Amino acid sequence: MRVAIVCLGYLGNPSGIDVLAEYFSGMDVDLYVHIDAKIDISPYADLSSKRSNVTLLSERRPIFWGGFSIVRAIVGGLETANATRSDYTRFFVLSEDTIPLRSRAEMWERATSSEEFFWSLPAPAELRAARYDKFCYPDSPATSLRGVRMDSCSLSPSDFENIRRLLALHGRGKAPVNVLHHGPGWWGLSKPHVERLLAAYHGDPWLRESFEFSLVPEEQYFHTILGEIPNSSGGAVFADFSRDLRPHVYRTADEIISAKTGRHLFLRKVALGEPVIAEFVRFLG
Question: Is 274 a member of any domain?
């Protein structure tokens, strides 16, 4: 039994990856880390040279909130893990500001069980209309939904090609989806389900492109492919969206301990660099 974790790094602070790598050291768990191409990779490269269970993905892409670039980064991590080793039985998808909530013994017992950490429900009509039915292109500095600067507003040749494809899709229409499913973008799945995701990604270009030009596809694309699966106990990662700013950022041990009351294996988001974060994980045992 072996576990692969695909982790998305985008904050420029490798301490979160270091905390995860230390926690999983000595276990049959490997981290495959995608670093947003918009940030400096050198701090992460220094870390990976010291942590044998961390692999930085060689193919990097700029990540834009709400865009399909996140899906492509996840798929790249899953495929790299599969190409590196054939014996992974479980795959998790996390962000670098995520920490474990369970002891190593409980983590391993549940990660290697038949439990699926994947929450997927039929999407309400208003969510479908807002995210899938629309034709969107957030994956560019010029069209990003966040942080657009005036000096980044020029379209690139690749942008023109993507917009050409978007117009062609608009003329054709999006792939018919009887039931759009949605759920958290951070999850844990056994290998057969991951193989289904990758097969659909490569085998159904119309569906893939339909989600490419949608909004926040990492919360709908994988979920629509799999639907509601057996043995699902809910999401792998807890995040608190009830408080502003959302999701809430955890900074103290008391806050983190309060989040352990559920069955989630991980907690997102934590304040990277705060000593209490590493200390909490170190003493999980």
Answer: yes
* 3-class DSSP assignment, residue 98: strand
Closest to 35 measured CA to CA, from 46, 25, 27: 46
- CA-to-CA distance for 89 and 182, rounded, in angstroms? 24
| Residue 214 domain-assigned (yes or no) | no
Tokens linked to 230: 């057996």
**To which residue do tokens 């834009």 refer?**
64
CA distance 38 to 72: 15
- HSE (CB half, 13 Å, CA atoms) of 125? 0
Neighbours of 50 (CB within 10 A): 9
- Give residue 74's domain range: 2-123+183-204+221-282
Q: What is the DSSP letter of 219?
A: G
Cα 121 to Cα 198: distance, rounded to the nearest angstrom: 20
Structural domain count, the chain: 1
Residue 139 CB-density burial (10 A; 0-12 exposed, 13-18 middle, 19+ buried): buried
Q: Please list the pLDDT of the chain residue by residue as tens digits (285 residues).
A: 999 999 999 999 999 999 999 999 999 999 999 999 999 999 999 999 999 999 999 999 999 999 999 999 999 999 999 999 999 999 999 999 999 999 999 999 999 999 999 999 999 999 999 999 999 999 998 899 886 666 667 888 999 999 999 999 999 999 999 999 999 999 999 999 999 999 999 999 999 999 999 999 999 999 999 999 999 988 799 999 887 778 899 999 999 998 887 889 999 999 998 999 999 999 887
Residues 218, 70 contacting (CB under 8 angstroms): yes
Say which CATH number the domain at 115 has: 3.90.550
Rounded to the nearest angstrom, the gap between the alpha carbon of residue 96 and the centroid of all alpha carbons in its chain is 10
- Domain contains 148: no
In this structure, what DSSP letter does residue 74 have?
Answer: H
